[in-house]
Amino acid sequence: MIAYILRRLVQAILILLGVSIVTYALLYMLPADPARQIAGRSATAETVANIREQLGLNLPFYEQYLRYLGNLLTGDFGRSYLQKTEVGELIAARLPATLLLMAGAIFCELLFGLTAGAIGAIKRNTPLDRGLMVASFVGVSAPQFVVGILMLYLFAVVLGWFPIGGYGTFAHLVLPSVSMGFLGAGWYSRMMRSSMLDVLRQDYVRTARAKGLGRARVFFVHAFPNALLPIIAMIGIDIGMFMSGIVVVESVFGWPGIGQLAWQAIQRVDIPIIMGVTLVSACAIVLGNLLADLVAPFIDPRIKLR
Amino acid sequence: MLVLAELAKRKLALLGLIIIVVIAGSALLAPWIAPYDPQNQMFDGLTIEGAPMPPGGQFLLGTDLLGRDLLSRLMYGAQTSLIIGIVANGAAVLIGALVGVTAGFFRGWIGTILMRATDLMMAFPALLLAIVLAAIFKPSLWIVAMVIAMVNWVQVARVIYTETRSLSEREFIEAEWGIGASRFRILFKHMLPHLLSTMVVWATLGIATTVLLEATLSYLGVGVQPPTPSWGNIIFENQTYFTSAPWLVFFPGIAIILLALAFNLVGDALRDILDPTQKGRH
Protein backbone atom coordinates (compact mmCIF):
# COMPACT_ATOMS: atom_id res chain seq x y z
CA MET A 1 0.00 0.00 0.00
CA ILE A 2 2.70 2.46 1.04
CA ALA A 3 4.89 1.38 -1.88
CA TYR A 4 1.92 1.96 -4.18
CA ILE A 5 1.28 5.43 -2.81
CA LEU A 6 4.94 6.34 -3.12
CA ARG A 7 5.08 5.14 -6.69
CA ARG A 8 1.94 7.09 -7.57
CA LEU A 9 3.36 10.21 -5.94
CA VAL A 10 6.56 9.94 -7.96
CA GLN A 11 4.45 9.47 -11.10
CA ALA A 12 2.37 12.51 -10.16
CA ILE A 13 5.48 14.65 -9.74
CA LEU A 14 6.82 13.50 -13.11
CA ILE A 15 3.50 14.33 -14.76
CA LEU A 16 3.46 17.79 -13.19
CA LEU A 17 7.02 18.34 -14.36
CA GLY A 18 5.89 17.37 -17.85
CA VAL A 19 2.92 19.74 -17.66
CA SER A 20 5.23 22.58 -16.60
CA ILE A 21 7.62 21.94 -19.51
CA VAL A 22 4.86 21.74 -22.12
CA THR A 23 3.02 24.80 -20.80
CA TYR A 24 6.21 26.81 -20.56
CA ALA A 25 7.11 25.87 -24.12
CA LEU A 26 3.63 26.73 -25.42
CA LEU A 27 3.62 30.11 -23.70
CA TYR A 28 7.15 30.75 -24.94
CA MET A 29 5.77 30.45 -28.47
CA LEU A 30 3.07 33.08 -27.86
CA PRO A 31 3.55 36.08 -30.10
CA ALA A 32 4.23 38.58 -27.30
CA ASP A 33 7.22 40.50 -25.97
CA PRO A 34 7.09 40.38 -22.15
CA ALA A 35 9.86 42.97 -21.71
CA ARG A 36 7.93 45.51 -23.79
CA GLN A 37 4.74 44.68 -21.86
CA ILE A 38 6.40 45.33 -18.50
CA ALA A 39 8.14 48.50 -19.60
CA GLY A 40 5.02 50.00 -21.11
CA ARG A 41 4.49 51.62 -24.47
CA SER A 42 6.51 54.78 -23.89
CA ALA A 43 9.65 53.06 -22.60
CA THR A 44 12.93 53.52 -24.43
CA ALA A 45 14.63 50.64 -26.19
CA GLU A 46 17.29 50.74 -23.48
CA THR A 47 14.79 50.22 -20.63
CA VAL A 48 13.24 47.34 -22.51
CA ALA A 49 16.67 45.78 -23.05
CA ASN A 50 17.45 46.20 -19.35
CA ILE A 51 14.27 44.47 -18.28
CA ARG A 52 14.92 41.69 -20.76
CA GLU A 53 18.38 41.26 -19.26
CA GLN A 54 17.04 41.36 -15.69
CA LEU A 55 14.35 38.71 -16.22
CA GLY A 56 16.69 36.56 -18.25
CA LEU A 57 14.36 36.76 -21.26
CA ASN A 58 17.34 36.78 -23.61
CA LEU A 59 18.57 33.44 -22.28
CA PRO A 60 17.98 30.28 -24.32
CA PHE A 61 14.67 28.51 -23.70
CA TYR A 62 15.95 25.73 -21.47
CA GLU A 63 17.85 28.13 -19.20
CA GLN A 64 14.74 30.26 -18.78
CA TYR A 65 12.73 27.19 -17.94
CA LEU A 66 15.26 25.89 -15.41
CA ARG A 67 15.31 29.29 -13.80
CA TYR A 68 11.52 29.27 -13.55
CA LEU A 69 11.54 25.74 -12.15
CA GLY A 70 14.19 26.68 -9.58
CA ASN A 71 12.06 29.59 -8.38
CA LEU A 72 8.99 27.35 -8.36
CA LEU A 73 10.69 24.92 -5.98
CA THR A 74 11.10 27.76 -3.50
CA GLY A 75 7.38 28.52 -3.90
CA ASP A 76 7.95 31.51 -6.17
CA PHE A 77 5.58 31.65 -9.16
CA GLY A 78 7.16 34.87 -10.44
CA ARG A 79 5.56 38.26 -10.89
CA SER A 80 2.66 39.25 -13.11
CA TYR A 81 3.94 41.21 -16.12
CA LEU A 82 1.14 43.75 -15.97
CA GLN A 83 -0.04 43.89 -12.37
CA LYS A 84 3.52 43.68 -10.96
CA THR A 85 2.14 41.52 -8.13
CA GLU A 86 3.42 38.12 -7.05
CA VAL A 87 1.49 35.44 -8.99
CA GLY A 88 1.43 33.26 -5.86
CA GLU A 89 -0.37 36.01 -3.97
CA LEU A 90 -2.84 36.62 -6.80
CA ILE A 91 -3.74 32.95 -6.94
CA ALA A 92 -3.95 32.59 -3.15
CA ALA A 93 -6.30 35.57 -2.99
CA ARG A 94 -8.58 34.07 -5.67
CA LEU A 95 -8.50 30.44 -4.61
CA PRO A 96 -11.12 30.60 -1.79
CA ALA A 97 -13.77 31.92 -4.21
CA THR A 98 -13.05 29.10 -6.67
CA LEU A 99 -13.09 26.45 -3.95
CA LEU A 100 -16.42 27.79 -2.70
CA LEU A 101 -17.84 27.62 -6.22
CA MET A 102 -16.55 24.07 -6.69
CA ALA A 103 -18.08 22.99 -3.39
CA GLY A 104 -21.40 24.50 -4.49
CA ALA A 105 -21.15 22.76 -7.86
CA ILE A 106 -20.35 19.37 -6.31
CA PHE A 107 -23.31 19.78 -3.97
CA CYS A 108 -25.64 20.61 -6.87
CA GLU A 109 -24.51 17.80 -9.13
CA LEU A 110 -24.79 15.21 -6.35
CA LEU A 111 -28.16 16.52 -5.20
CA PHE A 112 -29.73 16.60 -8.68
CA GLY A 113 -27.80 13.68 -10.15
CA LEU A 114 -28.25 11.17 -7.35
CA THR A 115 -31.90 12.01 -6.82
CA ALA A 116 -32.73 11.76 -10.51
CA GLY A 117 -30.73 8.56 -10.92
CA ALA A 118 -32.25 6.83 -7.89
CA ILE A 119 -35.79 7.79 -8.86
CA GLY A 120 -35.15 6.60 -12.40
CA ALA A 121 -33.95 3.22 -11.15
CA ILE A 122 -36.90 2.66 -8.82
CA LYS A 123 -39.47 3.83 -11.35
CA ARG A 124 -37.65 1.98 -14.10
CA ASN A 125 -39.19 2.24 -17.58
CA THR A 126 -42.01 4.53 -16.50
CA PRO A 127 -42.62 7.88 -18.22
CA LEU A 128 -40.96 9.54 -15.19
CA ASP A 129 -37.80 7.48 -15.71
CA ARG A 130 -37.73 8.31 -19.42
CA GLY A 131 -38.26 11.99 -18.70
CA LEU A 132 -35.35 12.00 -16.26
CA MET A 133 -33.17 10.16 -18.78
CA VAL A 134 -33.87 12.80 -21.40
CA ALA A 135 -33.16 15.51 -18.82
CA SER A 136 -29.81 13.93 -18.00
CA PHE A 137 -28.96 13.77 -21.70
CA VAL A 138 -29.80 17.46 -21.98
CA GLY A 139 -27.57 18.07 -18.95
CA VAL A 140 -24.52 16.54 -20.60
CA SER A 141 -25.31 18.30 -23.90
CA ALA A 142 -25.67 21.85 -22.58
CA PRO A 143 -22.59 24.07 -22.62
CA GLN A 144 -22.03 25.75 -19.26
CA PHE A 145 -22.03 29.27 -20.67
CA VAL A 146 -25.46 28.76 -22.25
CA VAL A 147 -26.91 27.33 -19.04
CA GLY A 148 -25.30 30.19 -17.13
CA ILE A 149 -26.57 32.98 -19.35
CA LEU A 150 -30.07 31.51 -19.63
CA MET A 151 -30.36 31.09 -15.86
CA LEU A 152 -28.98 34.56 -15.35
CA TYR A 153 -31.68 35.88 -17.64
CA LEU A 154 -34.54 33.89 -16.13
CA PHE A 155 -33.76 34.00 -12.40
CA ALA A 156 -31.85 37.25 -12.08
CA VAL A 157 -33.20 39.54 -14.80
CA VAL A 158 -36.81 38.43 -15.26
CA LEU A 159 -37.69 37.01 -11.83
CA GLY A 160 -35.14 38.99 -9.81
CA TRP A 161 -34.63 36.16 -7.30
CA PHE A 162 -30.85 36.28 -7.43
CA PRO A 163 -28.21 38.97 -8.02
CA ILE A 164 -27.03 39.37 -11.63
CA GLY A 165 -23.46 38.53 -10.77
CA GLY A 166 -20.67 39.13 -8.33
CA TYR A 167 -19.60 37.59 -5.10
CA GLY A 168 -20.27 37.84 -1.40
CA THR A 169 -23.52 36.37 -0.14
CA PHE A 170 -25.12 32.94 -0.41
CA ALA A 171 -27.52 34.27 -3.06
CA HIS A 172 -24.53 35.04 -5.27
CA LEU A 173 -23.40 31.44 -5.07
CA VAL A 174 -26.60 29.75 -6.22
CA LEU A 175 -26.72 30.42 -9.96
CA PRO A 176 -23.00 29.82 -10.69
CA SER A 177 -23.07 26.56 -8.70
CA VAL A 178 -26.13 25.28 -10.54
CA SER A 179 -24.69 26.26 -13.95
CA MET A 180 -21.50 24.41 -13.17
CA GLY A 181 -23.22 21.42 -11.55
CA PHE A 182 -25.76 20.95 -14.36
CA LEU A 183 -23.32 19.06 -16.59
CA GLY A 184 -22.08 16.78 -13.80
CA ALA A 185 -25.65 16.12 -12.65
CA GLY A 186 -26.31 14.59 -16.07
CA TRP A 187 -23.37 12.19 -15.72
CA TYR A 188 -24.14 11.32 -12.11
CA SER A 189 -27.78 10.60 -12.74
CA ARG A 190 -26.92 8.11 -15.49
CA MET A 191 -24.24 6.47 -13.37
CA MET A 192 -26.50 6.38 -10.33
CA ARG A 193 -29.33 4.85 -12.31
CA SER A 194 -27.24 1.96 -13.63
CA SER A 195 -25.45 1.48 -10.31
CA MET A 196 -28.79 1.40 -8.53
CA LEU A 197 -30.22 -1.10 -11.01
CA ASP A 198 -27.21 -3.35 -10.41
CA VAL A 199 -27.70 -3.19 -6.66
CA LEU A 200 -31.43 -3.80 -6.85
CA ARG A 201 -30.71 -7.04 -8.72
CA GLN A 202 -28.43 -8.33 -5.94
CA ASP A 203 -29.44 -11.27 -3.78
CA TYR A 204 -29.21 -9.34 -0.52
CA VAL A 205 -31.81 -6.90 -1.72
CA ARG A 206 -34.14 -9.74 -2.59
CA THR A 207 -33.45 -11.34 0.80
CA ALA A 208 -34.22 -8.10 2.59
CA ARG A 209 -37.52 -7.82 0.73
CA ALA A 210 -38.31 -11.51 1.42
CA LYS A 211 -37.70 -10.96 5.13
CA GLY A 212 -40.65 -8.64 4.94
CA LEU A 213 -38.83 -5.33 5.18
CA GLY A 214 -40.70 -2.40 3.73
CA ARG A 215 -39.84 -0.99 0.35
CA ALA A 216 -38.62 2.31 1.78
CA ARG A 217 -36.37 0.63 4.33
CA VAL A 218 -34.80 -1.74 1.80
CA PHE A 219 -34.30 1.15 -0.49
CA PHE A 220 -32.74 3.68 1.87
CA VAL A 221 -30.84 1.34 4.18
CA HIS A 222 -29.77 -1.48 1.87
CA ALA A 223 -29.71 -0.29 -1.70
CA PHE A 224 -28.94 3.42 -1.74
CA PRO A 225 -25.66 3.40 0.25
CA ASN A 226 -24.29 0.52 -1.82
CA ALA A 227 -25.23 2.14 -5.09
CA LEU A 228 -23.60 5.35 -3.90
CA LEU A 229 -20.16 3.92 -3.27
CA PRO A 230 -18.84 3.54 -6.82
CA ILE A 231 -19.99 7.06 -7.54
CA ILE A 232 -18.15 8.74 -4.66
CA ALA A 233 -14.84 7.83 -6.28
CA MET A 234 -15.89 9.75 -9.38
CA ILE A 235 -15.76 13.10 -7.58
CA GLY A 236 -11.97 13.05 -7.76
CA ILE A 237 -12.13 12.68 -11.52
CA ASP A 238 -14.64 15.52 -11.75
CA ILE A 239 -11.99 18.02 -10.76
CA GLY A 240 -10.57 18.03 -14.28
CA MET A 241 -13.95 18.95 -15.65
CA PHE A 242 -14.36 21.72 -13.09
CA MET A 243 -11.00 23.21 -13.95
CA SER A 244 -12.30 23.83 -17.46
CA GLY A 245 -15.71 24.91 -16.21
CA ILE A 246 -14.49 27.64 -13.88
CA VAL A 247 -13.00 29.65 -16.74
CA VAL A 248 -16.41 29.91 -18.42
CA VAL A 249 -18.73 30.08 -15.42
CA GLU A 250 -16.61 32.61 -13.55
CA SER A 251 -16.49 34.89 -16.57
CA VAL A 252 -20.26 34.66 -17.13
CA PHE A 253 -21.06 35.53 -13.49
CA GLY A 254 -18.14 37.83 -12.74
CA TRP A 255 -17.02 35.42 -10.01
CA PRO A 256 -13.61 36.51 -8.70
CA GLY A 257 -11.86 33.12 -8.78
CA ILE A 258 -8.78 31.71 -10.49
CA GLY A 259 -10.76 30.93 -13.65
CA GLN A 260 -11.47 34.60 -14.20
CA LEU A 261 -7.86 35.41 -13.27
CA ALA A 262 -6.63 32.98 -15.93
CA TRP A 263 -9.06 34.28 -18.54
CA GLN A 264 -8.06 37.92 -17.98
CA ALA A 265 -4.40 36.91 -18.06
CA ILE A 266 -4.89 35.09 -21.37
CA GLN A 267 -6.52 38.15 -22.91
CA ARG A 268 -3.61 40.35 -21.81
CA VAL A 269 -0.98 37.65 -22.49
CA ASP A 270 0.23 37.88 -18.89
CA ILE A 271 2.32 34.72 -19.10
CA PRO A 272 3.34 34.18 -15.43
CA ILE A 273 -0.31 34.15 -14.35
CA ILE A 274 -1.38 31.72 -17.11
CA MET A 275 1.53 29.49 -16.16
CA GLY A 276 0.67 29.64 -12.45
CA VAL A 277 -3.03 28.88 -12.87
CA THR A 278 -2.31 26.03 -15.29
CA LEU A 279 0.07 24.44 -12.81
CA VAL A 280 -2.34 24.85 -9.89
CA SER A 281 -5.14 23.30 -11.99
CA ALA A 282 -2.91 20.43 -13.09
CA CYS A 283 -1.98 19.79 -9.44
CA ALA A 284 -5.67 19.65 -8.54
CA ILE A 285 -6.44 17.28 -11.41
CA VAL A 286 -3.55 14.92 -10.61
CA LEU A 287 -4.43 14.94 -6.92
CA GLY A 288 -8.10 14.29 -7.68
CA ASN A 289 -7.27 11.28 -9.85
CA LEU A 290 -4.87 9.95 -7.24
CA LEU A 291 -7.49 10.26 -4.50
CA ALA A 292 -10.09 8.55 -6.68
CA ASP A 293 -7.73 5.58 -7.15
CA LEU A 294 -6.74 5.45 -3.49
CA VAL A 295 -10.32 5.51 -2.28
CA ALA A 296 -11.47 2.78 -4.68
CA PRO A 297 -10.25 -0.29 -2.69
CA PHE A 298 -11.85 0.99 0.52
CA ILE A 299 -15.13 1.27 -1.28
CA ASP A 300 -14.92 -2.01 -3.12
CA PRO A 301 -12.57 -4.55 -1.48
CA ARG A 302 -12.46 -6.51 -4.75
CA ILE A 303 -10.27 -3.78 -6.23
CA LYS A 304 -6.58 -4.36 -5.51
CA LEU A 305 -4.03 -1.58 -5.77
CA ARG A 306 -1.13 -2.52 -7.98
CA MET B 1 -27.86 -0.85 -42.54
CA LEU B 2 -28.76 -3.32 -39.84
CA VAL B 3 -27.48 -0.86 -37.26
CA LEU B 4 -29.56 1.91 -38.78
CA ALA B 5 -32.71 -0.21 -38.59
CA GLU B 6 -31.88 -1.04 -34.98
CA LEU B 7 -31.39 2.67 -34.26
CA ALA B 8 -34.73 3.57 -35.80
CA LYS B 9 -36.44 1.20 -33.37
CA ARG B 10 -35.33 3.27 -30.39
CA LYS B 11 -37.39 6.38 -29.92
CA LEU B 12 -34.68 8.57 -28.44
CA ALA B 13 -32.11 7.53 -31.03
CA LEU B 14 -34.63 8.17 -33.78
CA LEU B 15 -35.26 11.62 -32.34
CA GLY B 16 -31.49 12.22 -32.39
CA LEU B 17 -31.25 11.08 -36.01
CA ILE B 18 -34.07 13.39 -37.02
CA ILE B 19 -32.45 16.37 -35.30
CA ILE B 20 -29.14 15.62 -37.03
CA VAL B 21 -30.84 15.30 -40.43
CA VAL B 22 -32.72 18.58 -39.97
CA ILE B 23 -29.64 20.53 -38.81
CA ALA B 24 -27.33 18.98 -41.40
CA GLY B 25 -29.98 19.60 -44.07
CA SER B 26 -30.32 23.27 -43.22
CA ALA B 27 -26.52 23.62 -43.12
CA LEU B 28 -26.10 22.01 -46.55
CA LEU B 29 -29.00 23.84 -48.15
CA ALA B 30 -28.31 27.16 -46.39
CA PRO B 31 -27.26 28.96 -49.61
CA TRP B 32 -30.65 28.16 -51.15
CA ILE B 33 -33.12 28.11 -48.27
CA ALA B 34 -31.72 30.75 -45.90
CA PRO B 35 -34.13 33.70 -46.03
CA TYR B 36 -31.36 36.35 -46.14
CA ASP B 37 -27.64 36.76 -46.67
CA PRO B 38 -26.09 36.06 -43.22
CA GLN B 39 -23.60 38.93 -43.59
CA ASN B 40 -26.09 41.49 -44.86
CA GLN B 41 -26.59 44.30 -42.31
CA MET B 42 -30.09 45.25 -43.30
CA PHE B 43 -31.48 48.74 -42.86
CA ASP B 44 -34.91 47.40 -41.96
CA GLY B 45 -33.26 44.79 -39.68
CA LEU B 46 -33.10 47.34 -36.87
CA THR B 47 -35.86 49.27 -35.13
CA ILE B 48 -36.05 53.03 -35.45
CA GLU B 49 -34.08 53.30 -32.21
CA GLY B 50 -31.39 51.02 -33.71
CA ALA B 51 -32.22 47.99 -31.56
CA PRO B 52 -32.39 44.45 -32.98
CA MET B 53 -35.79 43.22 -34.18
CA PRO B 54 -37.55 40.65 -31.95
CA PRO B 55 -38.61 37.26 -33.42
CA GLY B 56 -41.69 37.08 -35.61
CA GLY B 57 -42.86 38.97 -38.62
CA GLN B 58 -40.39 39.58 -41.42
CA PHE B 59 -37.47 38.02 -39.54
CA LEU B 60 -38.61 34.69 -38.12
CA LEU B 61 -36.07 34.51 -35.28
CA GLY B 62 -35.36 38.24 -35.12
CA THR B 63 -32.18 40.11 -36.01
CA ASP B 64 -28.86 40.70 -34.25
CA LEU B 65 -27.17 43.91 -33.10
CA LEU B 66 -26.02 44.71 -36.63
CA GLY B 67 -29.41 44.08 -38.22
CA ARG B 68 -28.51 40.68 -39.67
CA ASP B 69 -31.13 37.92 -39.88
CA LEU B 70 -30.61 35.50 -36.98
CA LEU B 71 -32.18 32.45 -38.68
CA SER B 72 -29.86 32.81 -41.68
CA ARG B 73 -26.85 33.21 -39.39
CA LEU B 74 -27.88 30.11 -37.43
CA MET B 75 -28.15 28.09 -40.66
CA TYR B 76 -24.67 29.11 -41.76
CA GLY B 77 -23.47 28.62 -38.17
CA ALA B 78 -24.63 25.01 -38.43
CA GLN B 79 -22.10 24.56 -41.25
CA THR B 80 -19.34 25.72 -38.91
CA SER B 81 -20.44 23.44 -36.07
CA LEU B 82 -20.80 20.39 -38.29
CA ILE B 83 -17.56 20.91 -40.23
CA ILE B 84 -15.61 21.31 -37.01
CA GLY B 85 -17.52 18.51 -35.32
CA ILE B 86 -16.80 16.03 -38.08
CA VAL B 87 -13.25 17.09 -38.99
CA ALA B 88 -11.95 17.68 -35.46
CA ASN B 89 -13.57 14.63 -33.99
CA GLY B 90 -12.60 12.46 -36.96
CA ALA B 91 -9.00 13.51 -36.49
CA ALA B 92 -9.21 12.95 -32.73
CA VAL B 93 -10.59 9.42 -33.21
CA LEU B 94 -7.89 8.59 -35.78
CA ILE B 95 -5.05 9.92 -33.61
CA GLY B 96 -6.53 8.29 -30.52
CA ALA B 97 -6.96 4.92 -32.25
CA LEU B 98 -3.45 5.04 -33.69
CA VAL B 99 -1.94 5.84 -30.31
CA GLY B 100 -4.12 3.34 -28.47
CA VAL B 101 -3.40 0.46 -30.86
CA THR B 102 0.32 1.23 -31.03
CA ALA B 103 0.62 1.34 -27.27
CA GLY B 104 -1.69 -1.60 -26.63
CA PHE B 105 -0.66 -3.99 -29.41
CA PHE B 106 2.93 -3.21 -30.35
CA ARG B 107 3.87 -1.96 -26.87
CA GLY B 108 7.65 -1.60 -26.54
CA TRP B 109 9.24 1.70 -25.66
CA ILE B 110 7.18 3.64 -28.20
CA GLY B 111 4.04 2.36 -26.52
CA THR B 112 5.33 3.41 -23.11
CA ILE B 113 6.17 6.90 -24.33
CA LEU B 114 2.76 7.25 -25.97
CA MET B 115 0.88 6.23 -22.84
CA ARG B 116 2.97 8.59 -20.68
CA ALA B 117 2.11 11.36 -23.13
CA THR B 118 -1.56 10.44 -22.71
CA ASP B 119 -1.23 10.64 -18.91
CA LEU B 120 0.38 14.04 -19.33
CA MET B 121 -2.46 15.28 -21.53
CA MET B 122 -5.02 14.06 -18.98
CA ALA B 123 -3.47 16.35 -16.37
CA PHE B 124 -4.02 19.49 -18.46
CA PRO B 125 -7.10 21.59 -17.87
CA ALA B 126 -8.52 20.96 -21.36
CA LEU B 127 -10.14 24.32 -21.91
CA LEU B 128 -7.10 26.35 -20.81
CA LEU B 129 -4.92 24.27 -23.12
CA ALA B 130 -7.29 24.81 -26.03
CA ILE B 131 -7.44 28.57 -25.36
CA VAL B 132 -3.66 28.88 -25.23
CA LEU B 133 -3.25 26.80 -28.40
CA ALA B 134 -5.88 28.87 -30.19
CA ALA B 135 -4.12 32.07 -29.11
CA ILE B 136 -0.77 30.84 -30.41
CA PHE B 137 -2.07 29.77 -33.79
CA LYS B 138 -4.49 32.65 -34.47
CA PRO B 139 -7.93 31.08 -34.76
CA SER B 140 -9.51 30.18 -38.09
CA LEU B 141 -12.01 27.43 -38.83
CA TRP B 142 -9.35 24.80 -39.53
CA ILE B 143 -7.07 25.90 -36.70
CA VAL B 144 -9.96 25.61 -34.25
CA ALA B 145 -10.67 22.12 -35.58
CA MET B 146 -7.00 21.19 -35.16
CA VAL B 147 -6.85 22.59 -31.62
CA ILE B 148 -9.92 20.61 -30.60
CA ALA B 149 -8.47 17.43 -32.14
CA MET B 150 -5.24 18.01 -30.21
CA VAL B 151 -7.20 18.18 -26.96
CA ASN B 152 -9.83 15.48 -27.59
CA TRP B 153 -7.80 12.51 -28.87
CA VAL B 154 -6.76 11.59 -25.34
CA GLN B 155 -9.94 9.88 -24.15
CA VAL B 156 -10.17 7.84 -27.36
CA ALA B 157 -6.57 6.73 -26.93
CA ARG B 158 -7.24 5.58 -23.38
CA VAL B 159 -10.34 3.61 -24.32
CA ILE B 160 -8.76 1.96 -27.39
CA TYR B 161 -5.63 1.17 -25.40
CA THR B 162 -7.55 -0.63 -22.65
CA GLU B 163 -9.62 -2.51 -25.19
CA THR B 164 -6.58 -3.53 -27.26
CA ARG B 165 -4.83 -4.82 -24.16
CA SER B 166 -7.78 -6.93 -23.07
CA LEU B 167 -8.33 -8.21 -26.62
CA SER B 168 -4.71 -9.33 -26.94
CA GLU B 169 -5.17 -11.52 -23.90
CA ARG B 170 -8.21 -13.27 -25.30
CA GLU B 171 -7.85 -16.89 -26.35
CA PHE B 172 -8.66 -16.44 -30.02
CA ILE B 173 -5.81 -13.98 -30.38
CA GLU B 174 -3.42 -16.25 -28.51
CA ALA B 175 -4.52 -19.09 -30.79
CA GLU B 176 -3.64 -16.94 -33.80
CA TRP B 177 -0.15 -16.39 -32.43
CA GLY B 178 0.04 -20.15 -31.79
CA ILE B 179 -0.68 -21.09 -35.39
CA GLY B 180 1.96 -18.61 -36.51
CA ALA B 181 -0.16 -15.78 -37.92
CA SER B 182 1.76 -12.57 -38.64
CA ARG B 183 1.18 -9.60 -36.37
CA PHE B 184 -0.36 -7.63 -39.22
CA ARG B 185 -2.81 -10.39 -39.99
CA ILE B 186 -3.77 -10.53 -36.33
CA LEU B 187 -4.06 -6.77 -36.12
CA PHE B 188 -6.07 -6.14 -39.26
CA LYS B 189 -8.11 -9.31 -39.51
CA HIS B 190 -8.83 -10.08 -35.88
CA MET B 191 -8.33 -7.02 -33.70
CA LEU B 192 -9.53 -4.11 -35.83
CA PRO B 193 -13.03 -5.47 -36.44
CA HIS B 194 -13.49 -5.58 -32.67
CA LEU B 195 -12.08 -2.11 -32.17
CA LEU B 196 -14.14 -0.68 -35.00
CA SER B 197 -17.38 -0.60 -33.01
CA THR B 198 -15.69 1.36 -30.23
CA MET B 199 -14.39 3.77 -32.83
CA VAL B 200 -17.85 4.20 -34.37
CA VAL B 201 -19.33 4.95 -30.94
CA TRP B 202 -16.64 7.52 -30.23
CA ALA B 203 -16.94 9.02 -33.67
CA THR B 204 -20.54 9.80 -32.75
CA LEU B 205 -20.36 10.67 -29.05
CA GLY B 206 -17.20 12.70 -29.61
CA ILE B 207 -18.97 15.02 -32.05
CA ALA B 208 -21.16 16.19 -29.15
CA THR B 209 -18.08 17.03 -27.06
CA THR B 210 -16.48 18.74 -30.04
CA VAL B 211 -19.55 20.86 -30.80
CA LEU B 212 -19.63 21.98 -27.15
CA LEU B 213 -15.92 22.81 -27.08
CA GLU B 214 -16.12 24.77 -30.34
CA ALA B 215 -19.10 26.73 -29.03
CA THR B 216 -17.27 27.49 -25.79
CA LEU B 217 -14.08 28.61 -27.56
CA SER B 218 -16.08 30.78 -29.95
CA TYR B 219 -18.08 32.20 -27.05
CA LEU B 220 -14.83 33.20 -25.36
CA GLY B 221 -13.74 34.87 -28.60
CA VAL B 222 -10.82 32.52 -29.33
CA GLY B 223 -12.74 30.15 -31.60
CA VAL B 224 -14.17 30.79 -35.04
CA GLN B 225 -13.87 34.52 -35.71
CA PRO B 226 -16.68 36.82 -36.84
CA PRO B 227 -17.98 37.57 -39.41
CA THR B 228 -18.00 33.80 -40.09
CA PRO B 229 -21.07 32.79 -38.09
CA SER B 230 -20.74 30.12 -35.43
CA TRP B 231 -23.35 29.47 -32.75
CA GLY B 232 -20.80 30.27 -30.08
CA ASN B 233 -19.63 33.55 -31.57
CA ILE B 234 -23.21 34.71 -32.21
CA ILE B 235 -23.68 34.58 -28.42
CA PHE B 236 -20.25 36.17 -27.92
CA GLU B 237 -21.11 39.10 -30.20
CA ASN B 238 -24.50 39.77 -28.68
CA GLN B 239 -24.17 38.88 -25.01
CA THR B 240 -23.76 42.44 -23.72
CA TYR B 241 -27.24 43.06 -25.04
CA PHE B 242 -28.90 39.86 -23.88
CA THR B 243 -31.12 41.42 -21.20
CA SER B 244 -33.03 43.40 -23.81
CA ALA B 245 -32.65 40.92 -26.69
CA PRO B 246 -32.63 37.48 -25.03
CA TRP B 247 -33.46 35.69 -28.30
CA LEU B 248 -29.92 36.39 -29.48
CA VAL B 249 -28.66 34.04 -26.76
CA PHE B 250 -31.69 31.77 -26.56
CA PHE B 251 -31.86 30.49 -30.15
CA PRO B 252 -28.15 29.82 -30.71
CA GLY B 253 -28.01 28.26 -27.23
CA ILE B 254 -30.89 25.92 -28.06
CA ALA B 255 -29.23 25.05 -31.38
CA ILE B 256 -25.99 24.04 -29.62
CA ILE B 257 -27.86 21.95 -27.04
CA LEU B 258 -30.00 20.22 -29.70
CA LEU B 259 -27.05 19.25 -31.89
CA ALA B 260 -24.96 17.95 -28.97
CA LEU B 261 -28.02 16.17 -27.57
CA ALA B 262 -28.71 14.48 -30.91
CA PHE B 263 -25.18 13.09 -31.21
CA ASN B 264 -25.23 11.97 -27.56
CA LEU B 265 -28.55 10.15 -28.06
CA VAL B 266 -27.41 8.39 -31.23
CA GLY B 267 -23.97 7.59 -29.80
CA ASP B 268 -25.44 6.15 -26.63
CA ALA B 269 -27.82 3.95 -28.60
CA LEU B 270 -24.97 2.83 -30.88
CA ARG B 271 -22.98 1.78 -27.82
CA ASP B 272 -25.90 -0.38 -26.68
CA ILE B 273 -26.36 -1.91 -30.08
CA LEU B 274 -22.72 -2.55 -30.88
CA ASP B 275 -21.70 -3.82 -27.46
CA PRO B 276 -23.56 -7.08 -26.83
CA THR B 277 -22.36 -7.27 -23.21
CA GLN B 278 -24.51 -4.23 -22.46
CA LYS B 279 -27.72 -5.92 -23.66
CA GLY B 280 -30.62 -5.92 -21.29
CA ARG B 281 -29.12 -3.44 -18.89
CA HIS B 282 -31.71 -0.79 -19.49
From TrEMBL, chain A:
Residue intervals of the ABC transmembrane type-1 domain: 95-296
Keyword Transmembrane helix belongs to the record: yes
Transmembrane segments: 12-30, 99-122, 134-164, 170-188, 227-253, 273-296
Location in or out of the cell: Cell membrane
CDD domains in the record: TM_PBP2 (cd06261)
Keyword field: Cell membrane, Membrane, Transmembrane, Transmembrane helix, Transport
Keyword Kinase on entry: no
Pfam family, one: BPD_transp_1
Chief location: membrane
Family under the similarity heading: Belongs to the binding-protein-dependent transport system permease family.
Name of protein: Glutathione ABC transporter permease GsiC
Native source species: Thalassospira povalilytica
TrEMBL record, chain B:
A GO CC annotation given for this chain: plasma membrane
Membrane topology type: Multi-pass membrane protein
Alphabetically ordered keywords of this record: Cell membrane, Membrane, Peptide transport, Protein transport, Transmembrane, Transmembrane helix, Transport
UniProt subcellular location: Cell membrane
BP GO terms, sorted: peptide transport; protein transport; transmembrane transport
One Pfam family of this chain: BPD_transp_1
Domain ABC transmembrane type-1, first and last residues per copy: 78-267
Broad class of the protein's primary localization: membrane
Bilayer-crossing regions: 12-34, 82-106, 118-137, 143-161, 192-213, 247-266
Record family assignment: Belongs to the binding-protein-dependent transport system permease family.
Full protein name: ABC transporter permease
Organism per entry: Thalassospira povalilytica
Lineage summary: Bacteria, Pseudomonadati, Pseudomonadota, Alphaproteobacteria, Rhodospirillales
